[in-house]
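Q: Could you fold this chain for me?
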Amino acid sequence: MAPPKTPRKRARSYDSEKLRTAVLAQFAALREAVGALTPDQLAAPTRLGDWTVRELAAHLTMAVGMLPRGLARPAPPQADLALLDYPFLTAPAAPAIAVGVRELADSAPLSELYAQVAAGLDTYLPAGLDGGRPVAHRVGTMTLTDVLVTRAVELAAHTDDLNDALPALALPVERQLLAAATRFLADALAAKAPGGSTEVRIPPFAVVQCVEGPRHTRGTPPNVVETDPLTWIRLATGRTSWKTALDDALVSASGERADLAALLPIMA
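A: Sure. Below is the predicted structure, expressed as structure tokens.
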């Protein structure tokens, strides 16, 4: 799907160093949790098609490992992909990722895969690295800060996938990652459906205006959607449907333009 060609507000800013710290902490927590899983737990199904927990765990090393792999190469001349274009370019890569994950999961023990990525992060993602440094990504060249935002989505969504498959783990998501993922996906919704008739609230992290129609100026907006960050991430990435979230009272929607079903998911 091509990125939406619409005028945009000034891009939201993110703190590269806080994101870097949160990515490292979340990956370390996942490494410890995955290292303690039993063979039966690793063979358990997930909500991600036919992936097992083992394949999900391997994918996490692929998703985070792109950081040291990209940073180990010479920096490209410039970043040519805007952050809000990213969600609309990911779907075509999904089949190749699925094949690569299965190959990766069979290539080495998970402990080795996690150790390799951890070593790469220690080497190539030190404190104070310039967030504006261009980094080659699968779908284009982005700044390091923007790549870290995309990793926030990966880590938040996939930590939630792991908890869904193995509820006893109850792994928390680092607050900085949860905030960045929530804000990014909310902004992507506003880019996909520009307008000011509907207010989408995801406390405590994001509020965006979207959907064409009469613009709200004061008082209570006529069209309001509200949900929590993890439910929003599930909706935006296709983990759950709009109807299911409504039926389970995980999202509230009021007003004739508050039905977001046709706009979801935002990214694959």
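A (continued): Strands lie at 134-137, 140-143, 198-202, 206-210, 224-227, 251-254.
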